Amino acid sequence: MTTPTPSVAELGHVGLRCHDVSKQLAFYTEVLGLTVTDHDERLGIWFLSARPDTEHHELLLAEGRDAPVGIKLIQQVSFRCARFEDVLGFHRRFREHDVRLDMIVSHGNAVGVYFYDPEGNRCEVYWQTGFVARQPFVEHIDIETDPEELLDTIRASVERHGATGFTEESYRAWTREQAMPADGAAAKEVRQ
Fold first, then answer.
1. How far apart are CA 164 and CA 24, in angstroms?
2. What are the two backbone dihedrals, phi and then psi, of residue 135, each rounded to the nearest 5 degrees?
3. Which of 5, 99, 110, 172 is 20 to 30 Å from 26 at the Cα level?
């Protein structure tokens, strides 16, 4: 009897340890609009979902983070939106709540707004454009542009760069910087 090769159906959830769970909980429920589906205060864990009828939890917040703020633990946690208008709405909401933004970009196949949660975890809300573009594809965009005009610009960029991918120099420099250890001495040892 042969056993079929196992395969993953999809990513189910991500768990984040927190310094201040109540502050994180307020952010993810009030700003991002996730729903608390369960919690256990004795264990210090909260389960959150954007689709509680479909997925019990997509994000778990837990007490007990012992890494200092600023330590690079997570590259990003991304939340998919059903409509471009949702991404635009989150951009407005982030500005209203003074959420620190990282970048607003076209990935060709998606439009993303990158931001930081209260503990500095880098996150993204994004909408899939339906265009095909080799990754990485990172082109900064002005999300304040008329939506139809912006989508036309993204479409044209995908027509030019979709087969090869595209990254702006500022993103390449940022990526190299993020890959370096925080300790300068350690960085020198790594390069030698």
1. 39
2. -105, 150
3. 110
